[in-house]
Amino acid sequence: MSSVLTIVAGRELALTNLIKGLAKSTVLPDELVIVFMNEPVREMPKHTFPIRCYSLNQSAHLPLAAARNLAAKQAKGDFLIFLDVDCIPSATLIADYQRHISGETLLSGRVRYLRAGATSEKEFLSKMEDLSTPDPIRAGLETIPYSLFWSLNFACSKSTYLKIRGFDEGYEGYGAEDTDFAFSAEKQEVALQSVAAKAYHQYHESFSPPLNHLEDIVGNANRFFQKWKKWPMEGWLNSFAQMGLIEWDKQIIHLLRKPTKAEIKATLKK
Description:
The chain is α/β, with parallel strands linked by helices. It is built from eight helices and eleven strands.
């Protein structure tokens, strides 16, 4: 039994598109489990597969780690497919994952990025390949290192998830919780395998570096270093240091100031 799991904060249209994509799958999910973060459960229309919804309320505005763990706990399936709410699965995503269902392995799917306005086009679900571009970092890699694992699109058995011990809920908000999950998988000797289970990421505004998540990233980077003695997200941290936002002495990061609205706006990707 395969459960598709997604976590949501806002993103109503993105969730609708994800569900539309699942409905066109060559192999339908046995269920979709949705966890709403710090917002009430929304009523979902009936589909050809069950949809079960839960709400998680925590002090962190984006309790990503805790929400994924709740989704895994509530899933009835013994095979878990995690999709970011911004991802629309390809028609064969579930079937592609199920080819690798046996074994104690962490499966990393592939992602292409839909251009702005793509989901407004008529019959866009049948044209997503042409309306998207490959992931600039992982595209073409037959194997990926644990440091490049990303939680946008992945799968594993529930027993493997429990062996990894799920996501560390000490990470609050955005940043590093998925790299920590992958490092934990490596520590538990769980193999990481790249598979051709493709999802299409819906366009939304994003920032580089993500100044809008500065405080989360600083807190989570410090936690990651304390745990693994390595720094995650070094490119972003270097950018923050160059902007005078943080003091980084290679042992701990101190937040010096918050970015201004103008600084955040200037990092918006064009």
